[in-house]
Amino acid sequence: MNAYLRAMRLGRWPRSVAIFVGSASYFFLYRDSLLSADVKWLFSQALFAFFLTWAISTANYIINEIVDAPYDAHHPTKKNRPLIKGEIQRLPFLFMGITLSFASLILAYTYFNLPFFFSLLALLLAGFVYNIKPVRTKDIPFLDSISESANNPIRFLIGWFAYSPPAIWPPISLLLCWWAFGNFLMIAKRLSEFRFLKEKAGHYRNSLKKYTKKSLLFGMSFSAVIFFVTYLIVALIYDLHYFLYFSPFLAVYLYLFFKKTMKEETVMEEPERLLSNPKFALYTLFLLLIYFLSAFLEKPQL
């Protein structure tokens, strides 16, 4: 594959599928909108929203590839990225990212509503805040995972406003729940790096110089608590009994991630790569099926 295409990390497209959590949530809460919608319009909106999200995410990966090169050189696998190995040039690569960003935002402004446009813009700006100095939250303990996992509710909003009218916003508790799940995963990844890279960890990720195993375990636990508290709030507010019944299955899901994190043999993969593991893939599919089933068994009380 062309080195520039590899550096764009196009293989991380599954992260953009997360927008459909927002779309599904909108139609679950406002199901009359789904019944009255044209099928072709539904599919075209979904496809277009996905590609715009993927494009902005790719632009962020381009920025990350450029600014993180000195740090990635200390990582056992990331040191083989194209820019570090001199396979691509910095300026043409940066120009690709700028072009991709402007094209995506122009299309979003033209074909979608303003909340969708601003949500997509927020995804781009979140990448800047996370990666680029003088802010670069990536170097600040806990703020690094908090800001990186902010992409979860942002993608949720993109998917929501791909269909929702501008005046209808998702509940804050649902956005916070989705953020907490992402924060749990991001801290898990840092704990895995901290355990595996040991004394080299701080050279790869500055924030790891100030973490301890205890503080990372606390961060994971705190995120899990926030996730379940907000999940239960959503279930109680909308009178979703099956969501309450299914909560133990979610606890098992988080435990699988925790168990994976505590293995010292390798650094934990990116969350989407975990789905290549049959255990994670099958259990994820199981969760999707039972929650899809719940949509037919009960109607939320708005």
Rg, rounded, reads 20 Å
In the CATH hierarchy, the architecture of the largest domain is Orthogonal Bundle
| Beta-strand percent range | under 5%
Structural domain count: 2
Describe the protein.
- This protein has 2 domains: 1-167, Tetracycline Repressor, domain 2, CATH 1.10.357.140; 171-302.
- The chain is globular, with a radius of gyration of 20 Å.
- The protein has 302 residues and is mainly α.
- The chain is built from 14 helices and no strands.
- The termini are far apart.
Provide a compact summary of the structure.
By secondary structure, the chain is an all-alpha fold. Helices cover 69% and strands 0% of the residues.
Give the helices and strands, then pairings.
Elements: H1 3-7, H2 19-29, H3 31-35, H4 39-67, H5 69-72, H6 90-111, H7 114-131, H8 143-149, H9 151-161, H10 172-197, H11 201-204, H12 213-237, H13 241-261, H14 278-297
Helix pairs in contact: 2-9, 4-6, 4-7, 6-7, 7-9, 8-10, 9-10, 10-12, 10-13, 12-13, 13-14
Keyword list:
302 residues; mainly alpha; Tetracycline Repressor, domain 2; 14 helices; 69% helix; 0% strand
